[in-house]
Design brief:
82% of the residues lie in helices and 0% in strands. It has one domain: MFS general substrate transporter like domains (Growth Hormone, Chain: A, Up-down Bundle), CATH 1.20.1250. By secondary structure, it is mainly alpha-helical. The chain contains 18 helices and no strands. The chain starts with 10 loop residues before the first helix and ends with a helix. Helix 2 runs antiparallel to helix 3, helix 2 runs antiparallel to helix 6 and helix 9 packs parallel to helix 11. It is a multi-pass membrane protein.
C-alpha cells in the first residue's frame, strides 16, 4: 500500500513498540482514577479504528502513526487486564490470570494459522519464486509483475483480514461498555481506599525487583522463540522443516502448559508454581547450553524450556498480590519491564550473534537469564515475608474476626432473649408460689376451726419457711411440682 519494502519502513515496528510503552505507562496512571471497564472498552475501540484504517493507508508516516495508536491501545489493554483481574478476584486471582495469559498464547497460535489460510493459498508464484531465490521474507521482490500479482491476488483477503479482526474487537468492546454501565465506581473507590493501608514494608523494592524479573523472563522467552529456528539451521544443521518443527515444539509446549496451569493454579500456591518453573528453566537451559549438540537434548530441552516459561508471568503477578497491593502504576511497570525485555534482549543477542558466529549466544542467554531469575526470586521472597503476614492471611484473619464478632453479637442477643424469658418464668413461679402458700394457710385455719387457741398452736407455713432454710427449700420444691399435679 505504501510502495515500500519492509526493510525500508522498519520504523513502524519502533513506533508500535514506543506506543506500547507509552500506553502501558498511561494506562497504569489512568486505571487508578478511571473505571477499568471503560478504559478497556476505549482501548478496544482504539485498536479497532487502527485496524480499519490500515488497509486504506497510503503513507508510511501515517502507517507509523496508526501502528503507534494500536501499540498504545494494546499497552493499555495488557496493563488493564491484569489490574482488572486483581481488583476482581484479589488474592484468589491465580487461575483467572493464568486463563487470561493462556488466551494470549491461544491467539498467538491461532492467528498465524488463520492468516496462512486466508492469504497463503492464493500467494502468486512469482512472489514465491522471488522469496525462494532471496531466502529471506524481508528481501524486496524485484519484478514489478510480482508486485502487481500480489495486489491482484491478495487485495481482498488482505482487506478482509483487517476488517474481520477489527469487527471482532469492536464486538468485544461492547461487552466492556455494558460492564461499565453495570459497575459501581463508588464501590471500586471505597475498595481501593481500604486496600491502600495493606502495603508491604518493602513495597517499592519489590516492585523494582519484579520489574527486573519480568524483563529477564520475557526477554529470554522472546529471544529463544525468535532465534531457535536460526540456531537449528546454523548450529544443529537441521533442514528447514525440522527447524520449523523445533520452533513449533517450543511454542506448543508453552501454550499447552499455560492451559494446564489454569487448573494447577487452583490447587497450588503461586510461589510454588514459580519455584517449579524456575527449576525447570534452569535444568533445561543448562542442558541446552552444554549438550545441545545431541539431538535428543535439543528437542527435550526446548520442550521443557517452553513449558517452564509458560506460567512465570501470571504466577508472578498473583504471588506479589499476596504480599502487597498492586494498583495501576505497579502493574504498568511490570508490563513496561516485559516490553523492554522483549525489545532489548533479542536486539542485543542478534548483535552479538552477528559478531560471534561460532558461539551459541542464544543458549548462553537462556542460561544467563535463568540464573538471574533464580537469584532474584529468593531475594523478593525474603523482602516480601519480612513485613509479616501476607494479604491472604490478613484477609482470612479479618474474615475470622468478623465472623467471631458477628457470632458474639448473636450470642449476646440470644442471652438477652433467654434472660428475658427466664425472668418472666421466675415471676410466674413466684406468683404461683404466693398463691399456693396463701391457699395452704387458709386451709390450715379452716381445719383448726373457730378456736383461737388451737389455731395459735398450729405452725404457720409462712413462719416455717421463714425460720428454716431447709424447710423453705422443700416448700418451694413442692410448690414447683404442685401446679403440675393440680
Amino acid at each position: 500500500n505504501v510502495h515500500k519494502n519492509v526493510t525500508d519502513i522498519y520504523y513502524i515496528f519502533v513506533g508500535r513498540s514506543l506506543g506500547y510503552l507509552g500506553g502501558s505507562v498511561l494506562g497504569g496512571i489512568l486505571f487508578d482514577h478511571v473505571n477499568a471497564h471503560l478504559l478497556l472498552a476505549l482501548s478496544m475501540l482504539g485498536t479497532t479504528g487502527g485496524l480499519f484504517a490500515i488497509p486504506w493507508c497510503k503513507r508510511s508516516l501515517l502507517l507509523t502513526a496508526l501502528m503507534s495508536l494500536i501499540g498504545a491501545a494494546m499497552g493499555v489493554l495488557d496493563t488493564g487486564g491484569n489490574v482488572l483481574a486483581l481488583n476482581t478476584w484479589g488474592t484468589e486471582a491465580g487461575p483467572h490470570l493464568q486463563a487470561l495469559h493462556f488466551s494470549f498464547a491461544m491467539g498467538a497460535f491461532v492467528a498465524p494459522i488463520l492468516a496462512k489460510m486466508a492469504m497463503g493459498g492464493s500467494e502468486p508464484r512469482d512472489l514465491q519464486a522471488g522469496e525462494n531465490a532471496s531466502q529471506s521474507v524481508l528481501s524486496p521482490v524485484s519484478t514489478a509483475s510480482a508486485t502487481l500479482a500480489l495486489k491482484h491476488h491478495l487485495g481482498a483477503d488482505f482487506l478482509w483480514s483487517y476488517v474481520v479482526i477489527g469487527t471482532y474487537l469492536l464486538f468485544v468492546s461492547f461487552f466492556f461498555f455494558i460492564l461499565y454501565s453495570k459497575s459501581s465506581s463508588v464501590r471500586d473507590k471505597s475498595k481501593a481506599s481500604v486496600q491502600k493501608c495493606k502495603v508491604a514494608k518493602y513495597h517499592h523494592a519489590l516492585i523494582i525487583l519484579l520489574f527486573l524479573f519480568f524483563l529477564c523472563y520475557v526477554g529470554a522467552e522472546v529471544t529463544y522463540g525468535s532465534y531457535i529456528f536460526t540456531y537449528a539451521k546454523v548450529f544443529a544443521e537441521m533442514k528447514e522443516n525440522e527447524a520449523a518443527a523445533l520452533n513449533s515444539v517450543f511454542w506448543g509446549a508453552f501454550a499447552v502448559c499455560r492451559a494446564v496451569s489454569v487448573f494447577c493454579a487452583a490447587c497450588l500456591y503461586p510461589g510454588t508454581m514459580i519455584v517449579l518453573s524456575l527449576i525447570g528453566s534452569a535444568v533445561s537451559s543448562s542442558s541446552l547450553a552444554f549438550f545441545a549438540h545431541y539431538p535428543i537434548s535439543l528437542w527435550a530441552g526446548t520442550a521443557v524450556y517452553g513449558a517452564s516459561m509458560a506460567t512465570i508471568f501470571p504466577s508472578g503477578i498473583s504471588w506479589i498480590e499476596q504480599y502487597t497491593v498492586i494498583q495501576g502504576k505497579s502493574a504498568s511497570l511490570f508490563v513496561v519491564g516485559a516490553a523492554l525485555g522483549e525489545m532489548c534482549i533479542p536486539a542485543v543477542v542478534g548483535y552479538l550473534q552477528g559478531r560471534f558466529h561460532h558461539v551459541p549466544v542464544v543458549m548462553y542467554t537462556a542460561l544467563g537469564t535463568s540464573v538471574m531469575t533464580a537469584v532474584l526470586f529468593p531475594v523478593m521472597y525474603k523482602l516480601a515475608t519480612a513485613s509479616g503476614e501476607s494479604l491472604r492471611e490478613m484477609s482470612e484473619s479479618e474474615d475470622r474476626k468478623a465472623l467471631l464478632s458477628s457470632s458474639g453479637l448473636n450470642e449476646d442477643e440470644e442471652d438477652e432473649e433467654d434472660g428475658g424469658e427466664w425472668n418472666e418464668a421466675d415471676f410466674e413461679v413466684i406468683e404461683m408460689n404466693d398463691t399456693l402458700r396463701n391457699s395452704m394457710v387458709e386451709t390450715s385455719l379452716k381445719a383448726a376451726g373457730n378456736s383461737p387457741s388451737e389455731a395459735s398452736l398450729q405452725p404457720h407455713p409462712g413462719d416455717a419457711v421463714d425460720d428454716s432454710p431447709v424447710a423453705a427449700g422443700v416448700f418451694y420444691l413442692l410448690c414447683d411440682l404442685t401446679p403440675i399435679t393440680c
